[in-house]
Amino acid sequence: MHTPGEMQSAAPAAAEEGAPAPRRRRAVVLPAILFAGLALLPAAALALSAGYMLDLFTRVMIFSVAALSLDLLIGYAALVTFGQAAFLGLGAYAVGILAAHGITDALVALPVALAVSGLFALLTGLVCLRTKGVYFIMITLAFGQMAFFTAASLAPYGGDDGLTLADRNTVAGLPLFDNPLAFYYVVLACLVGAYLMCRTLVASRFGRVLRGAKDNPVRMTTLGFRVYHFQLVAYVIAGMLSGLAGFLLGNATEFVSPAYMSWQRSGELIIMVLLGGMGTLHGAILGAATFLLLEEWLSAFTEHWKMIFGPFLVLIVVFVRGGLIGIGAAIGRRLFRG
Predict the structure, then answer these.
(1) Rounded to 5°, angle at Cα 292 from 289 and 294
(2) What is the pLDDT of residues 42-61, one digit of tens each?
(3) Domain range holding 61?
(4) Is residue 107 part of a domain?
(5) What is its main location (predicted)?
(6) Beta strands in 136-278 (DSSP E)
(7) Degrees, nearest 5: CA angle 114-233-268
(8) For the chain, how many structural domains are there in total?
(9) What CATH code is carried by the domain that includes residue 294?
């Protein structure tokens, strides 16, 4: 005999197992293609003598990690936050402040970045998750802006002007990050690791409770699940993943700034998730890549590139269910039927 709670938590798993074969294949094939393409990109950049592509796609992968963390909250827990960039900035400032005091080893900076972002997520999540809907959005925005103005007031660490790093972090004293190719593959490894961790979480009992609470939190609470605690853990995990992205971003740019924590940056992360397709994880990666590549391309024509990108995003959100992943699935269905 199964308890009602066990039956409820098993229902989404059964639904996934009963999903059409093409959908299950896409969930495996598309991420594999994305990661294979990223792994082979340095060879293409070398063949084309386009070294700038390494820097560009390193940035793409860093923001993909941050977008993944946000998709975990929005796509699977229905927690729409406008403060995700605060964790990105905290991870970057952990690198910058430690470097300003002569501590430049990643084996120290990375744990500190994760701990600071995780602690901030825990303390703010304890308050934010007691609210719902628009109130949750506004209070996360308030905490994000609080982090932004705090960073801007840190005069010893650059204040509004930001803080320039003398060099990238070392790894056990070795200048591994100074090699652009080595750093690229470090970032790729972090992205793959973050994706696999999120995929494992979503497929686990923990993820099934999150999705159940997204659809009907009252019912999940009635069945004996402490929804608040599950959401708090997800919020902390997402904060730490975004802190990881901040650690990588600080090293990539060798510069940290309060702008990393702005609400506009949080809005861009939400756009990346919407553009790729919420609740897919690999859609967040695709959305981040599309957003940043379009930014790079359109900004070459005009500094007002967002006036072109805005209507495109509106069309995607209004007329295409599931973002770019939804477009791909629709095309695949038409070809399959044809």
Answers:
(1) 100
(2) 988 888 877 788 999 999 99
(3) 54-337
(4) yes
(5) membrane
(6) 163-164, 255-256
(7) 65
(8) 1
(9) 1.10.3470
